[in-house]
Amino acid sequence: MHTTPTAAIKSFMIGALTLRPFAGNELMAVRIDAPKGAVAPAHSHPHEQMTLVVAGRLRFRVGDEWRELGPLDIVHIPSGVEHEAVMEEDATFFDIFHPVRADLLQRQAAAE
After folding, report:
1. Cα dihedral 67/72/88/31 (nearest 10)
2. What is the SS3 assignment for the chain?
């Protein structure tokens, strides 16, 4: 068993977002802390994703559909579907990926 406080996980930045990846063999959770006004720009990837909001509010787009998400709301993003988010308030949320995103682990390893 591998456990750790998420605030203690080694982090790196993408724009104004602070990411803290935590991976198993085939599943990954990434804690993301983002200030109000931060943007996760439009992108897609081959990984299936779910995003669970812990605190704050954000506008989230999956495909052509926008929704406002708040604490304990969750959204599913199928693999290959473009998505983006805009922080309406300071926010903490978790992105969950299958399979593991090696690109995020590489960025984490390279972070100081």
Report:
1. -110
2. CCCCCHHHCCCEEECCEEEEEEECCCCEEEEEEECCCCEEEEECCCCEEEEEEEECCEEEEECCEEEEECCCCEEEECCCCCEEEEECCCEEEEEEEECCCHHHHHHHHHCC
CB distance 85 to 68 below 8 Å:
no
CA dihedral 108, 54, 29, 88 (to 10 degrees): -60
pTM of the model: 0.95
pLDDT in tens, 29-75: 999 999 999 999 999 999 999 999 999 999 999 999 999 999 999 99
Contact 29, 96 (CB under 8 A): yes
pLDDT-derived band of residue 112, with 50, 70 and 90 as boundaries?
Answer: confident
Q: Beta partners for 59?
A: 68, 86
